[in-house]
Amino acid sequence: AIIGVLLLVGGNVGVAWAEKTVPSGLTALIVAIVPIWVAVIETFILKGERLKARGFVGLGMGIAGLVVLLWPKLNAGSVGHGVLFGALILVGASLSWATGSVYSRRWDLKVDPFAATGWEMLCAGVVNLGISLALGDQHTVVWTARGIGAIAYLITAGSLIGLTAYVWLLNHVPTAKVATYAYVNPIVAVFLGWLILHEQVDSYIFAGTIVILASVWLVNTSKVHKVEEGKKPEPELAACEGVAD
After folding, report:
1. In 10 A of CB 235, how many CB atoms?
2. What is the DSSP letter of 109?
3. What is the mean pLDDT of the chain?
4. pLDDT given for residue 240 in this prediction
5. Which of 50, 145, 179, 231 has its CA 20 to 30 A from that of 170?
6. Which pTM value belongs to this model?
7. In 3D, which of 158, 33, 155 has the Cα closest to residue 97?
8. What's the rounded Cα separation, in Å, for the pair 154 and 41?
9. DSSP secondary-structure letter at 139?
10. Could you tell me the sign of the dihedral formed by the alpha carbons of 107, 111, 115, 120, in that order?
C-alpha cells in the first residue's frame, strides 16, 4: 500500500495535476530528476547501491540532453500563472516516485513482483478514488468513446504492462539504472510524434537524442557498489547485516 501510494498517488497524480499549469516540455524536464533523486537516496541516505563516477556523469548528461531535446518547446512556451507552484509539485512528485522505487526494491515482499504490482495498483486506486470523490470530480467527468478508449489503453499499456515491467526490473536491476527510463520517455514520445502525427524532427532533437542515449549507456555500464560488496561489512552496521543475511 505504501509503495503504491508513493508511486501512483504522490507520483502520477502529482504529475497529472501539475500539467494543468506546467507546459508538457517543462514537465518532462523536471520529472527527469527522478534518477538524481534515486542516486541521492541510495548513496547518501540509505548507504546502499552506489554508482561509480561515470554513472553520475551519465545522470548529468541525461539532464543536459533533455534540455537540448526540449529547448525549442521550452523557449517558445509561455509561462502563465501557477507554473512555479506546479513546478514545485512536480519536484515533490518526482521525489515520491523515486522513494517508492527505492523501497520497492529494498522491502522483502512475500509475493512475487506481478502480485505486488496488482496490490500496489489496487491500494493506490482506492486512495485516488477517494481523492477524486472528495474533490467532486464525479460531477464534472464527461464520458466519451475516445476517453474510454484512452482509459482502456492506459490500463493495458501503462499499468498491466508498463508498471508491471517497472516493478519487475526494480527487483532485478539496480534502481539507479532502472530510473533512467525518465530520460528515454521523451525520445519515445518524439519518435511516435514523428511516426504517427508527422511532427518535424530538427537538429535539436537529433542532438538531444544522441546525448541522452550516451547518458543511459554511461549509467547502465557503470558498476554499482553495494554495502555488502566483497563481504566486507562496515563495523557500525555489522549487527544489522547479520540479521539481513
Report:
1. 6
2. -
3. 81
4. 41
5. 231
6. 0.74
7. 33
8. 29
9. G
10. negative
SS3 call for 168: helix
- Give the three-state DSSP class for 50: strand
Question: CA 64 to CA 60: how far, in whole Å?
Answer: 6
Would you state the cell numbers that stand for residue 216, as one nine-digit string? 543511459
Q: Cell match 499549469: residue?
A: 21
The C-alpha atoms of residue 117 and residue 1 are separated, in whole angstroms, by: 10
Assigned C-alpha cell, 58: 551519465
CA 211/CA 68 separation, integer angstroms: 9
User: How far apart are alpha carbons 58 and 25 in whole angstroms?
Assistant: 21
Vertex 154 angle, CA 151 and 160, to 5°: 125
- At residue 109, φ and ψ (nearest 5 deg) are -75, 150
Confidence band of 229 (pLDDT split at 50, 70, 90): very low
Q: Is the dihedral of CA 159, 162, 163, 167 positive or negative?
A: positive
C-alpha to C-alpha distance for 43 and 226, rounded to whole angstroms: 10
Burial 82-101 (b: 16+ CB within 10 A, else e): ebeebbebbeebbbbbbbbb
